[in-house]
Specification:
This protein is of the alpha+beta class. Helices cover 51% and strands 21% of the residues. It is built from 10 helices and 12 strands. 31% of the residues are buried.
Amino acid sequence: MIEVLRHGLFDIGPFLLVLTVLVFVHEFGHYFFARLFGVKVEVFSIGFGPELFGWRDKAGTRWKFSLVPLGGYIKMFGEGLPGSSPPSEGARLSPGEEKESFQAKRLPQRAAIVTGGPASNFLFAILVLAVLFAAYGRPVTPAEVGKVEAGSAAAVAGIRPGDVILAIGGKPITRFEELQNAVRPSAGVPLSILVRRGGKTVTLSATPQPKEVTDRFGKHREVGFLGISHSGVVYVKEKPIPALLSSAEETWNLSAETLRAFWQMLTGRRGTEDLGGPLRIAQLSGQAVEGGFVAVLWLLAVLSINLGLINLFPVPVLDGGHLLFYAAEAIRGKPLGQRTQEYGFRIGLALVLSLMIFVTWNDLVHHLTWRF
């Protein structure tokens, strides 16, 4: 246990660095749109709790670092519960104050300010990946066979090392991941496989063998298995504009894969062992630092995408919950009642706290298993 704690301490520095960057990016998205629409931002904090140090800018915003570095927030003038009403008659603001108040802004402006946080996470991921693709290269896994397991479905079909998979069932294949996606749901189903061998194309037929996969929570699922591995990963440098387009595509794909995995967890088709919290992020941060600058940037991009997605979930206390209240306000023509919002806030807080407890437990199990 002492060794586990000691190893964790070495990950704290990289973890705080990664978390600070992600929190700043997210909160700056809110801050940018707030200032764009003339809302006064009273506080921009990295962390929670008592202030460690900070400064005040000419616009009156207090920029500060706080004691508990597990998140951050901005405090806007006139900000209350999501969707809450503008100030009452007894607490009416002066014209100058109303101009700078968050709640005095029109509904689309408030929605844009709330959306600005997740949007900045996605934009940040796109820019980081674009820099990587242009400077270092986009990782591509060619659909080239590196190894064929003896007695496997691929061996029976006559697939050989060095073959390049061109299509499966008439569907073009360009990457090894596309090959895996085509094979996994096709256990026991004959597949027509077009391969390039030398200078010729050959059509083969292979029937993926069913393979049962069991996660550590005891859930079983069956996938198709050909018995081949790829030949390796190549990095292809791209010019700035293609790199930007590729990074946007990669961000979209990573977002879709994350949402798909989350849905599979909700429906019980996938285990929850991949869910992680602060300890998992700390471990990944330490490993990324050891892997170098490129690994750190990849981690930042992936975590930024995840942060943007999570905050869009329609759960009160998250940005998506605020947007849910705003949608109700747009339909009703007026905000939801104060009590309804308070109950929603409590339910949302309970859900978020429950998830935090669960992922922390998951982290502990994963960390102890990883160490021992």
